[in-house]
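Example 3.2
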Amino acid sequence: MDTKELIQQQVSENDVVLYMKGSPDFPQCGFSANAVRILKSSGVDHIFSVDVLQDPAIRQGIKEFSDWPTVPQLYVRGEFIGGSDIMTEMYQSGELADLLKKPA
């Protein structure tokens, strides 16, 4: 399975996927920590996370997959949502909570 196929499988098979630096328990950058904090504050109990620092192919591949240059990147039910800044805006407006509560 190539990197693009792996990423497609991950975002298709998991409701909430966060490509980040580090893990939800030990984020390795402030933006990733912010993304995890937002998701937990929004009531997300299970985050399928992928540590891009562990795999250079995923680190580059996710940027190409989404056509988004930075990490973290959030996917909800297969849809690319955005990075830390977009997550923050959506969280503050209540839009993210609404998106996360919608049935699959």
